[in-house]
Amino acid sequence: MTSIQLETPVTGKYTQPTGLFINNEFVKGKKGQEFEVINPATEKVTCKVHEATEEDVDIAVAAARKAFQPGSEWRTMATADRGKLLLKLAELFEKNAEMLAAVEALDNGKSISMARGDIGACIGCIRYYAGWADKIHGKVITTAEGSFNYTKREPIGVCGQIIPWNFPLLMWAWKIAPALACGCTLVLKTAEQTPLSGLVAASLVKEAGFPPGVVNVLSGFGKTAGAAIASHMDIDKVAFTGSTLVGRTIMKAAASSNLKKVTLELGGKSPNIVFEDADIDEAISWVNFGIFYNHGQCCCAGSRIYVQESIYDKFVARFKERAEQNIVGDPFHEKTFQGPQVSQLQYDRIMDYIKIGKEEGATVETGGERHGDVGYFIKPTIFSNVKNDMKIMQEEIFGPVCAIAKFKDADDVLEIANDTTYGLAAAVHTKNLNTAIKVSDNLKAGTVWVNSYNLLHWSLPFGGFRQSGIGRELGKAALENYTQIKTVAINMKGAMF
Ligand code: ADP
């Protein structure tokens, strides 16, 4: 069996594929292994899915290689037709949006209203890259009379893509859409905690009409299937989103196998800076959203909050009040803002950090404990009275936990905000244009939001400075990840030597 009937409160019954998606078919893994998918809100088993091992990765890569051969349907397809297939996929996402959102809520535990937002962002992303498919050009470069040179942007080939569990379908779309617009084929591995939505989406890939082998989606574990992708000799490029720790492993595996090209979108410990002249109500709303959105499970979460000293006490009191109003609970309730953490492991890691914070001497302003009796729920937690060298100020917690500290002026806050090994994102709240520009210019981060937070858009490049990553996703920048430049130099002057 490679599909089952599941049920969600929003959609009623729906068909959930459980097989590995290879060559446009759902198949069992070669070893016949399956693994359990846990509902984080109830801690009960939702279903089992088939597990990809090394052999299945080989089969999927062979399918992707075949689909990439010169003369194949995919390689000979007009670029505009590639765009049309992506548009069709976006249309199918739109048609099935409510079902996709429900699967995401069931699998990941995110609230249904936030899941709907994710699906909207997937649709936008896929449409955006559909538009790029026939606009990827090289250049003519003149060097001297009698020579004619041009560059082409060729698809890089077979891509391995490894995605995390915090935005299962959005990361699927961020990876798949630019790779397909560029004419690559791919083998994507979903995270073992959240394999369901990627498989439903794979069935839409088939329905959209992509040729077999172009998109392959595997459920499986990092140390087996993920490692097999990273070290595969016939994968031309690996794109990874996940922890910095695993990012290093991927890079090492790529280096010691076939030197496949690598892009990494990794962790963060992003500063969110509030100046005394900011609109306090707006700043509190963005700071709250910056850390507690998606239960703090965002690589760009604004987990270090710096507030100018003159407004610090007032800000802490009001932020605490705001965080306590966040509705934590059943992902399928329309008003829920925060659902459970994704897994027991993540729950335990976060609770450990909360314990460490308390032991380090920080003050718990609110939260600091589990919510309810069942499910991996943690109360929104704010630590004050923190020092910059404390673990909770330096390490990525990946949960609804933040630390708040005061600063004197722009120079002071820049020094402490940049005192981290990460550099994914940051934000500054102020009404003063000069402050906004000076602070943004000097923050070591790939994205800086001014008077907002977490406002990502498919047309804006996203990625990390320092140990937060290599390369950029989204926007035109992502096309560079999936194409390589070929230079053709034509000599028209006959023999020269
Ligand atoms: P987290 O710690 O938040 O679960 P990870 O970085 O471990 O995040 O996981 C992100 C993705 O990387 C998942 O798809 C996971 O299966 C995969 N992964 C984990 N370990 C490895 C590894 N050694 N090689 C390749 N992929 C891995």
Terminal CA distance reads 68 Å
- CATH fold-level topology of the largest domain: Aldehyde Dehydrogenase, Chain A, domain 1
Number of strands: 22
Look at the structure and give the mean pLDDT: 98
Number of domains: 2
Secondary structure: helix percent: 25-40%
Count of helical segments? 16
Note the main sheet. Answer: 7 strands, mixed
What does the radius of gyration come to?
24 Å
Oligomeric form = single chain
Strand portion, in percent? 15-25%
The CATH architecture of the largest domain can be named as 3-Layer(aba) Sandwich
> Cofactors and ligands present?
adenosine-5'-diphosphate
Low-confidence stretches: none
Side by side, the strands of the main sheet go: 16-17-18-15-14-19-20
Q: What is the CATH level 1 assignment of the largest domain?
A: Alpha Beta
CATH-defined superfamily of the largest domain: Aldehyde Dehydrogenase, Chain A, domain 1
Give the helix/strand class.
alpha/beta
Overall 3D geometry? globular
Structure description:
The protein has 497 residues and is α/β, with parallel strands linked by helices. It has two domains: 3-266 and 470-485, Aldehyde Dehydrogenase, Chain A, domain 1 (3-Layer(aba) Sandwich), CATH 3.40.605.10; 271-457, Aldehyde Dehydrogenase, Chain A, domain 2 (3-Layer(aba) Sandwich), CATH 3.40.309. Helices cover 37% and strands 22% of the residues. The protein has helices at residues 54-68, 73-76, 79-95, 97-108, 112-132, 168-181, 196-208, 222-230, 244-256, 280-292, 312-324, 344-359, 391-394, 410-417, 433-442, 479-482; strands spanning 3-8, 12-17, 20-22, 25-27, 34-39, 44-50, 140-141, 147-155, 158-162, 185-189, 215-218, 237-241, 261-265, 271-274, 304-308, 363-366, 381-384, 401-407, 425-429, 447-450, 469-470, 483-491. The strands form six sheets. Strands 16-17-18-15-14-19-20 form a seven-stranded mixed sheet, sandwiched between helices. Strands 11-10-9-12-13-21 form a six-stranded mixed sheet, with helices on both faces. A three-stranded antiparallel sheet has the order 7-8-22. Strand 14 (271-274), helix 10 (280-292) and strand 15 form a beta-alpha-beta unit. Helix 4 (97-108) crosses helix 5 (112-132). The protein is globular. The protein binds adenosine-5'-diphosphate. Residues 162-164, 189, 191-192, 221-223, 226-227, 230, 242-243, 246, 249-250 line the site of adenosine-5'-diphosphate. The site of adenosine-5'-diphosphate (ADP) has 17 residues, from helix 8 and helix 9. One of its GO terms (biological process) is acetate biosynthetic process. Keywords: Oxidoreductase. The active site is at residue 265. It catalyses: an aldehyde + NAD(+) + H2O = a carboxylate + NADH + 2 H(+). This is Aldehyde dehydrogenase.
